[in-house]
């Protein structure tokens, strides 16, 4: 299970990418989330066109073991967040 705050941050990251218009947003967004000290590190990537962005956010009360991978698939009509 992914904390709702992290889910909202990932949706915001996708919205920011779409609104900036610098990069064409791929239908598949991949997020890797890990904890470093008191910070959460979220890396967002896509394959076509290639894109990678990493954010570091200070959130102390979220527990993450190892690295979490989350996929967001956009069908055009709706988007689905998958936590394998």
From TrEMBL:
Q: Which Pfam families match?
A: DUF960 (PF06124)
Name listed for the protein in its UniProt record: DUF960 domain-containing protein
Q: Which organism is it from?
A: Clostridium lentum
């Amino acid at each position: 299970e992914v904390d709702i705050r992290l889910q909202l941050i990932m949706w915001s990251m996708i919205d920011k990418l779409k609104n900036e218009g610098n990069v064409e947003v791929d239908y598949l967004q991949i997020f890797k989330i890990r904890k470093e000290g008191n910070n959460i590190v979220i890396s967002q990537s896509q394959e076509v066109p290639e894109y990678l962005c990493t954010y570091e956010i200070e959130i102390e009360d979220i527990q993450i073991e190892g690295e979490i991978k989350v996929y967001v698939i956009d069908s055009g009509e709706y988007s689905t967040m998958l936590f394998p």
